[in-house]
Amino acid sequence: MLIEQQPAYVLHSRPYRETSLLIECLTRDHGRLGVVARGVRSQRGRLQRAQLEPFQQLVLDLHMRGELASLRGAESIGTPLHFSGDASLAGLYLNELVVRLTERQDPHPHVFDAYAQTLARLAQGEALAWHLRRFERDLLAALGYAMQLDIEADTGEPLQPDALYAYQAEHGPVRCHSNDPHAVRGSHLLALHDDRMPDAQGLHALRGVMRELIRFHLGGVELRAWRVLRSALTRR
Description:
The chain has 236 residues and is α+β, with helices and mostly antiparallel strands. Among the domains are: 2-76, CATH 2.40.50.140; 147-236, Recombination protein O, C-terminal domain (de novo design (two linked rop proteins), Up-down Bundle). 38% of the residues lie in helices and 25% in strands. The chain has 7 helices and 8 strands. It has helices spanning 46-51, 86-101, 109-123, 128-142, 186-194, 200-217, 224-234; strands at 2-16, 20-27, 31-37, 58-65, 68-76, 164-168, 172-175, 183-185. Strands 1-2-3-5-4 form a 5-stranded mixed beta barrel. Strand 1 (2-16) and strand 2 (20-27) form a beta hairpin. Helix 2 (86-101) packs antiparallel against helix 3 (109-123), helix 2 (86-101) packs antiparallel against helix 7 (224-234) and helix 3 runs antiparallel to helix 4 (128-142). The radius of gyration is 20 Å and the shape is elongated. The protein starts with a strand and ends with a helix.
């Protein structure tokens, strides 16, 4: 099957055979695809390899056969995004999150659009943690794991802003005591529900909630980006 002029982003790449790359791409209409870019590591392929960098929107021409696609052409579109410092780490985390949580050839146009929007926000270098929490929320919802952020899981009553909750992956928010290590205020969950950025305390609490939830959906496995971020913070 030929796929022409498909909007895409490169999420990850690694050497494949002697002169090629195996690339994980997020495409708008076909979801995540494994793409073989033949010859791009050779002397003649340097220009094309430079185009196949993360965070740059592309349009790809592909030949889909079985599990993998073959790259037939790639063109950069739009203004290149530039990342540095924490924004670069946030972008790498975003890419790993998509690779680990999505399945190949499972189309999710809303994920593609949310990813593109989040990259643009990260490139501005402001409110990085908040933009990541928004994307995590939207990615889980698109994959069928939508969070319950305004109703108590065990009572069906509206969340109380001043109450403390433990977010249970298979149920939702349940009231808890202040000594619960995963306690988060109802106001912080409601802020995520309403797409309102909470204060620093709320962002910290929501990070813990999202990590536990993502870890659950990954079968208890940690993301490599979490270790990298921890190491970077420790060195400061």
